């Protein structure tokens, strides 16, 4: 068990990487694409980690599916190119995913990150970014897959919950786990107190998961 540097005395995180995330000395910076639907705090955490040297990467583009979401405002402040692809303008999940693949291929993205992307993705996206599509989910998967994971963990009365970063496969929240962080649930917790505790750990583990997903890819290339 490791106590994170940002952990308060009441917040204990258990971080379980399966492989060391360090890139080879030859590796170039990863080009990251990010998908978000709402607040964009995980998107901002990836930009910060890239710019402060914690992650050998550059966030080259954000796509949001909800016009006027906070992630867009953050992208503007952080000077990251952002594009709106409103899912309601596409006939099917596959059509939206094809547009996403075209967009991120143009940006030569190595790893694509679903950072609060509240859409089910189709095999079109999973296959185009096979082993290079990372999702962050606010529970210790395989517990509480799907929507409202934190609310359901609270309602279930679990004493430990957390977050998971995993590779994406067509089955929802079911791909190989890269890294998880556990947080305690206290007796008087509400969403207002539990959510920030989980988000703080998401912001720590997501850059590590991205480095893990990108490592083999970069080491394979000249
Ligand atoms: C995060 O808690 C993330 O785990 C969750 O949405 C939130 C986005 O926060 N994702 C899911 O529930 C996906 N099933 P953010 O917009 O501040 O990064």
Automatic annotation (TrEMBL):
<feature type="binding site">
    <location>
        <position position="135"/>
    </location>
    <ligand>
        <name>(6R)-10-formyltetrahydrofolate</name>
    </ligand>
</feature>
<dbReference type="InterPro" id="IPR036477">
    <property type="entry name" value="Formyl_transf_N_sf"/>
</dbReference>
<dbReference type="InterPro" id="IPR004607">
    <property type="entry name" value="GART"/>
</dbReference>
<feature type="domain" description="Formyl transferase N-terminal">
    <location>
        <begin position="31"/>
        <end position="209"/>
    </location>
</feature>
<dbReference type="Pfam" id="PF00551">
    <property type="entry name" value="Formyl_trans_N"/>
</dbReference>
<feature type="binding site">
    <location>
        <begin position="118"/>
        <end position="121"/>
    </location>
    <ligand>
        <name>(6R)-10-formyltetrahydrofolate</name>
    </ligand>
</feature>
<comment type="pathway">
    <text>Purine metabolism; IMP biosynthesis via de novo pathway; N(2)-formyl-N(1)-(5-phospho-D-ribosyl)glycinamide from N(1)-(5-phospho-D-ribosyl)glycinamide (10-formyl THF route): step 1/1.</text>
</comment>
<dbReference type="GO" id="GO:0006189">
    <property type="term" value="P:'de novo' IMP biosynthetic process"/>
</dbReference>
<keyword id="KW-0658">Purine biosynthesis</keyword>
<protein>
    <recommendedName>
        <fullName>Phosphoribosylglycinamide formyltransferase</fullName>
        <ecNumber>2.1.2.2</ecNumber>
    </recommendedName>
</protein>
<dbReference type="GO" id="GO:0004644">
    <property type="term" value="F:phosphoribosylglycinamide formyltransferase activity"/>
</dbReference>
<feature type="binding site">
    <location>
        <position position="93"/>
    </location>
    <ligand>
        <name>(6R)-10-formyltetrahydrofolate</name>
    </ligand>
</feature>
<comment type="function">
    <text>Catalyzes the transfer of a formyl group from 10-formyltetrahydrofolate to 5-phospho-ribosyl-glycinamide (GAR), producing 5-phospho-ribosyl-N-formylglycinamide (FGAR) and tetrahydrofolate.</text>
</comment>
<dbReference type="InterPro" id="IPR002376">
    <property type="entry name" value="Formyl_transf_N"/>
</dbReference>
<comment type="similarity">
    <text>Belongs to the GART family.</text>
</comment>
<dbReference type="GO" id="GO:0005829">
    <property type="term" value="C:cytosol"/>
</dbReference>
<keyword id="KW-0808">Transferase</keyword>
<feature type="active site" description="Proton donor">
    <location>
        <position position="137"/>
    </location>
</feature>
<feature type="binding site">
    <location>
        <begin position="40"/>
        <end position="42"/>
    </location>
    <ligand>
        <name>N(1)-(5-phospho-beta-D-ribosyl)glycinamide</name>
    </ligand>
</feature>
<feature type="site" description="Raises pKa of active site His">
    <location>
        <position position="173"/>
    </location>
</feature>
């Amino acid at each position: 068990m490791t106590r994170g540097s940002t952990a308060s005395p009441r917040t204990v995180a258990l971080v379980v990487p399966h492989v060391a995330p360090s890139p080879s000395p030859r590796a170039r910076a990863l080009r990251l694409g990010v998908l978000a639907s709402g607040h964009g705090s995980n998107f901002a955490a990836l930009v910060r980690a890239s710019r402060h040297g914690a992650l050998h990467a550059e966030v080259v583009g954000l796509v949001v599916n909800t016009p006027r979401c906070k992630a867009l405002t953050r992208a503007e402040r952080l000077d990251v190119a952002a594009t709106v692809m409103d899912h309601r303008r596409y006939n099917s999940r596959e059509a939206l995913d094809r547009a996403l693949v075209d967009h991120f291929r143009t940006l030569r993205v190595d790893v694509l990150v679903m950072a609060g992307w509240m859409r089910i993705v189709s095999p079109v996206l999973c296959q185009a970014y096979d082993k290079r599509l990372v999702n962050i989910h606010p529970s210790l998967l395989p517990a509480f897959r799907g929507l409202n994971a934190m609310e359901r963990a609270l309602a279930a009365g679990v004493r430990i919950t957390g977050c998971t970063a995993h590779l994406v496969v067509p089955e929802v929240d079911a791909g190989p786990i890269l890294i998880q962080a556990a947080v305690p649930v206290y007796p008087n917790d509400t969403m207002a107190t539990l959510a920030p505790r989980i988000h703080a750990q998401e912001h720590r583990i997501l850059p590590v998961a991205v480095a893990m997903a990108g490592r083999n890819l970069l080491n394979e290339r000249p």
